[in-house]
Design goal:
This protein has 340 residues and is of the alpha/beta class. 35% of the residues lie in helices and 18% in strands. It is globular. The structure holds zinc ion. Zinc ion (ZN) is lined by residues 170, 185, 187, 189, 192, 194.
Length: 340
């Protein structure tokens, strides 16, 4: 079959266990299917480069495109990085740290490359799927922690001078545990938003609640599995309307809404997109109501409606649309923008 002559851009999303890859054409439209291969990030970055090459080959074969037609690649990594250099180990093996992965991979495949962190990539992905409708957006993703990203009008990612900007999980919030203390955060600080809105927060709050006599007869108190396992089960329990699970998720949603109202005073993005695993739950409508409850309690009225034209909504808060391929899409879009 004759191969197409157009130019293409690849987005490669390196996760802790899988690489997701996608191809876009000159119009930034997706070509072919999303490809998934194991990432093997704990076996060293050179092993991961081979996996990335496999992903690129499968992408081009699947779309019947010559590898020579790829003009650039966008890469995202599951760890802190600055200007292409990995700054922290996170889920990676030690040899990644301090290496300019962007430049090393670019040299390895002989193509220009751009690289950002995973949440930033997903933020651009959410922009890419809505680019004809929106100016910019603020992306917030409650997962193990609470990540985020800010996309400016026109699709430019705001990364900050050192590429370390938009870490909403580590803003201080004024919420305290019942003993009056600010919870300890994994970053070394106290009282970070992530200690209230994340899987880490689910574990902490669940442990506190299960120790109360009120929940002595709760099913989660009747087995001796770890708090990590029990926290994983909370989502299913919330889907079944379990009062303890609902109470904990409600607290998380309300506090996320509170934080969003503060973030609007800084960024006024017009659109806030909530990503992460909760996007797929059956109680997501309820969760959004809790987010709105916290938001409305703490926001300025002008961040909901225009005071001049009350028909005009000034901020929309909605769920992510890009699913788990948002990161790959975002990086393909970024490569298209930079190298097109
Ligand atoms: Zn923190």
């Amino acid at each position: 079959m004759e191969q197409k002559q157009s130019i293409y851009f690849a987005g490669l999303d390196i996760g802790g266990s899988t690489i997701k890859a996608v191809l876009v054409d000159e119009t930034a439209g997706q070509v072919g299917e999303i490809i998934e291969v194991p990432s093997r990030v704990t076996e060293g970055y050179e092993t991961c480069f081979k996996q990335l090459e496999d992903a690129l080959r499968l992408l081009t074969e699947g779309a019947n495109v010559s590898q020579d037609a790829i003009n650039g690649v966008g890469l995202d990594v599951p760890g802190p990085s600055s200007d292409g250099v990995i700054w922290g180990q996170a889920n990676l093996s030690k040899d990644w740290v301090g290496v300019n992965i962007r430049d090393a991979f670019s040299k390895h495949i002989g193509l220009p490359a751009v690289m950002v962190n995973d949440c930033n990539a997903a933020a651009v992905g959410e922009y890419a799927v809505r680019r004809k409708q929106v100016g910019g957006l603020l992306y917030l993703a409650p997962g193990t922690g609470l990540g985020g990203g800010l996309v400016l009008s026109g699709g430019k990612l705001y990364e900050g001078y050192n590429c370390l900007a938009i870490e909403p999980g580590h803003m201080s919030v004024p919420f305290r545990d019942e003993d009056g203390e600010l919870p300890d955060c994994t970053c070394g600080l106290k009282g970070c938003l992530e200690t209230w809105v994340s899987l880490i927060a689910l574990r902490r709050c669940l442990k506190i609640e299960l120790a109360k006599t009120k929940w002595a007869a709760h099913s989660l108190n009747s087995d001796d599995s770890t708090i990590e396992n029990k926290a994983f089960r909370l989502r299913d329990l919330a889907e079944e309307n379990d009062p303890l699970a609902v109470q904990i998720f409600k607290q998380q949603g309300v506090i996320l809404g509170y934080a969003i109202s503060d973030l609007l005073r800084l960024f006024d993005p017009g659109l806030v997109v909530i990503g992460g695993g909760l996007t797929e739950t059956s109680f997501r409508d309820k969760y959004m109501e809790w987010v709105m409850e916290g938001f409305e309690e703490h926001c300025w009225p002008m961040h909901k409606k225009s005071p001049i034209d009350p028909q005009k909504t000034t901020t929309k808060i909605e769920w992510a649309q890009g699913g788990d391929s948002a990161g790959a899409l975002g990086m393909a879009f970024t490569a298209h923008d930079l190298f097109g």
